[in-house]
Amino acid sequence: MHELPVVLDIIRVMDEEAEKNKIKKINKISLVIGELSSIIDESVQMYFEVAAKGHPCEGADLVFEHRPAMLRCQSCGKKFPHTRDFQCPDCGGDSILIKGTGREFYILSFDGQ
Amino acid sequence: MEVIIMKELLEGNEKLAEENRKYFKQRHLLAVNLMGAPGAGKTTLISAIAKELKDIPVGVIEGDISSSIDAENLEKQGLRSSQINTCGECHLDARVIRDGADQIDMHDGIVFIENVGNLICPAEFDLGESVRLLAASVPEGDDKPFKYVPMFSYVDVVALTKCDLKEAVGFDSDNFVKGLRAVSEAPVFEVSLKKNEKAAGIDTLARFLREKYEQM
Ligand SMILES: Nc1nc2c(ncn2[C@@H]2O[C@H](COP(=O)(O)OP(=O)(O)OP(=O)(O)O)[C@@H](O)[C@H]2O)c(=O)[nH]1
Ligand SMILES: [Mg+2]
Ligand SMILES: [Zn+2]
């Protein structure tokens, strides 16, 4: 729902990076997005196509890498990616969220010339 | 050429939030970011807490998509308030909070920031608050902590509101607490603030906030 400010932020960072690295055209941007950031890829893509016009990153491919929130089983200690029922895949025990996981939200890299 | 940058997004908001945090600290204000679904009972909660904390000045920054009804109602009660209309935005951000804080221009006290009614987006925008309070209401259902992990894992304290409706909606308190404990250590305060009936539970929540204020 707030993908527009996110997209504008991506474009701003890319403008700065293009200038710093003397790059005229950016072809690809890799984003790392944690599961708990509630950002929808399609909306980012849609805003990006419109908002990037006239910037070095116009037409760049957006690559989304998703990171899950991680849970820890309270019975056996196993760590595993968040599931809806919070149940351990090994022993069926209840699990809890590992603090801080799934909140990633950054531009990993870009590709340009 | 591939360039690795690892650049955080929405960093601009983080920076402004830190500035707000300094501003509140300098003025000895306890800023409470109050979040929750539309109609969860946020405004009712602020009003009731202010009545409990008579000796502490209470101000409100009201975030709303388009109206100023909540701010007007709280002003009638004597609270200093400012209104921020987000014009359709789904959350408040750190930039607008500074304007709201300047408008109420308080020194010393508690400032509630009533966020836009939304159980999702506000969990991503630090406003520079020192307490994150979630109003989760009984009619929303006892499974919400399992379903809205980003919000429930973001807050420091939960007010379970409309507890007078537990029977009517068949609310399973154990399941709610189990879900909350899976994602957070936040304490839960159960409150009932039905109109024209005796309030319950608000005194303990108010005491919790008073302690936070005094420890500041
Ligand atoms: N039965 C009952 N009703 C409540 C309680 N608390 C609030 N309400 C009612 O719930 C409705 C919504 O309360 P508000 O305080 O306006 O909720 P809000 O979260 O501020 O709503 P928005 O700002 O519009 O998102 C009102 O009709 C309140 O009277 C409660 O503890 N019990
Ligand atoms: Mg309200
Ligand atoms: Zn296990």
From TrEMBL, chain A:
Key words of the record: Metal-binding, Nickel, Zinc
Pfam families reported for this sequence: HypA
GO biological process, one term: protein maturation
InterPro entries named among the record's database cross-references: HypA/HybF (IPR000688), NOB1_Zf-like_sf (IPR036283)
Gene Ontology molecular function terms on file: nickel cation binding; zinc ion binding
Residue stretches in coiled coil: none
Residues the entry annotates as binding Zn(2+): C73, C76, C88, C91
Annotated residues for binding of Ni(2+): H2
General function of this protein: Involved in the maturation of [NiFe] hydrogenases. Required for nickel insertion into the metal center of the hydrogenase.
Family stated for the protein in its record: Belongs to the HypA/HybF family.
Protein's UniProt name: Hydrogenase maturation factor HypA
Source organism (scientific name): Caproiciproducens galactitolivorans
TrEMBL record, chain B:
Domain CobW/HypB/UreG nucleotide-binding: from-to ranges: 32-181
Protein keywords: GTP-binding, Hydrolase, Metal-binding, Nickel, Nucleotide-binding, Zinc
Domain of life: Bacteria
Pfam families: cobW
Keyword Nucleus: no
One GO process term, biological-process aspect: protein maturation
One Gene Ontology MF term: zinc ion binding
Family: Belongs to the SIMIBI class G3E GTPase family. HypB/HupM subfamily.
Protein name from the UniProt record: Hydrogenase isoenzymes nickel incorporation protein HypB
